[in-house]
Design a protein that fits this description.
This protein has helices spanning about 5-30, 245-250, 260-265, and strands at about 35-40, 45, 55, 65, 70-75, 80-85, 95-100, 110-120, 125-135, 135-145, 155, 165-175, 180-185, 195, 210, 235-240. It is α+β, with helices and mostly antiparallel strands. A hairpin with a 5-residue loop joins strand 4 (about 65) and strand 5. The longest helix has 26 residues, at about 5-30.
């Protein structure tokens, strides 16, 4: 049997302690980049009051948690809810990743945004995710901040998407480039994306993710024309927010088996 001298034993213990300290520091640093990890496993009913979610605007029937464990927003209601996290520097990007399904409509939907990154208040909303009416149906869209008759939105695609189908959305807020980027069903960050830029918007220290209910069409430029009359209804699940694409998109092991769980393993 090999004899271990006291000096060697001390060295081995010191080395092991150092390795453990470095490992702990690495885990702490890595986990700190995951800002929100949300699978909506709450009792059916109001979203606000569960897991840090709170109403930040509007009164009436709140966004609902369904029996299936999804956050359901209906445009004819008014409340908007958010979940806050540590305020991020105005020099770094923030990503949000979630699954969404848009309920079928009998006519073209109104151009309305339903999700965004934000600060802790009621008006500073960035990286807004829209449903946009297009010829034959609808598509997603993104704006870096508020829109107007001169400041528009960037559509995901000229091809229509499908109602009652789960899409995997990733958004990125870049305060340095004054831009917001949208991916639909990406495999990696280098997958196809679209970006909306507005250099007039000051950098925002984002500290929350919001879900919105509204029946009012957004004000947009006259061209291209986004004309629709139907109210929006959506459901969201498996939300992640992080400081990198992979941290936002690989954060929850869903309580229910789904394609999302399979997609997340790609990002790991």
């Amino acid at each position: 049997m090999r004899r271990i001298t006291p000096g060697l034993l001390v060295m081995k213990i010191a080395t092991s302690l150092l390795a453990l300290a470095l490992c702990a520091a690495f885990v702490s640093t890595a986990s700190a980049t995951v800002l929100v990890s949300e699978s909506f496993t709450y009792p059916a009913g109001n979203l606000a009051g569960n897991g840090g979610w709170a109403n930040y605007s509007g009164v009436g029937t709140d966004i609902q948690v369904s029996a299936a464990g999804r956050a359901v927003g209906i445009g004819t209601n008014q409340p908007d809810d958010h979940k806050l996290f540590t305020a991020q520097p105005t020099t770094s990007k923030t990503y949000a990743c979630f699954e969404v399904s848009i309920a079928a409509q009998t006519s073209a939907p109104k151009p309305i945004y339903f999700a965004e990154l934000k600060d802790g208040g009621t008006t500073n909303l960035v990286s807004r995710v829209y449903v946009l009416p297009i010829s034959g149906g609808w598509t997603f869209g993104i704006s870096h901040s508020s829109t107007s008759t001169t400041v528009g939105v960037t559509p995901w695609s000229a091809a229509t998407l499908l109602y009652d189908t789960r899409y995997y959305i990733v958004i990125n807020y870049d305060p340095v480039a004054h831009s917001s980027t949208l991916w639909v069903n990406p495999v990696t960050e280098s997958s196809t994306s679209v970006t909306n830029t507005n250099t007039a918007i000051a950098a925002l220290a984002v500290s929350g993710f919001g879900l919105r209910e509204s029946d009012a069409a957004s004000t947009l430029p006259a061209s291209p024309a986004y004309v629709g009359t139907a109210s929006l209804m959506y459901s969201v699940d498996n939300l992640g927010v992080g400081t990198t694409f992979s941290d936002a998109c690989y954060q929850v092991t869903p309580a229910r088996s789904s394609t999302w769980g399979q997609v997340k393993t790609i990002y790991r």
